[in-house]
Structure prediction request, 160 residues.
Amino acid sequence: MDNNITIDTISQSTIQSDNLPTDTQTRLNAMISDYSFRMSTLENKVLETENNVSIIKSNYLTSHAFYKTGGISLITLIVSAGAALWAIYSNLDGKIDSMRSDTSSSFVSFDHRLDSVENRLTALEIKVDNVDSRLNKVESKIDSIDNKIDMLIQQKTAKK
Prediction:
């Protein structure tokens, strides 16, 4: 059974790139490329450490010198791994901040558009109120004229 899993194997088996938008796919490909580079760097460091250990063993160093060299290699590996993890974290942190900023600006834009629609709606309500008021005045004038016409018709019929 092969225990060596590469980034390509993971990306081929878990990432459905056909379903992702181009922008997200580009970001994802860049992140995978960046992570695979970091992983290969760490793998190279491990191989280098293993080579150092084999050289030490082949030179029949004393156990003190052997453990000292192994300790230095281990510390180097730990520091390298820490630096790689910090780079990954800072990279993701920056991307998350960027995405949060984009989302925030989208909400601000939407809020401005909503305010604009509310202002237009308020202006329309004012116009409707003005038209309603004018309609009421016209109706009252028509009623007044209708009453006068009825009164004139009654006077005319009364005179006959």
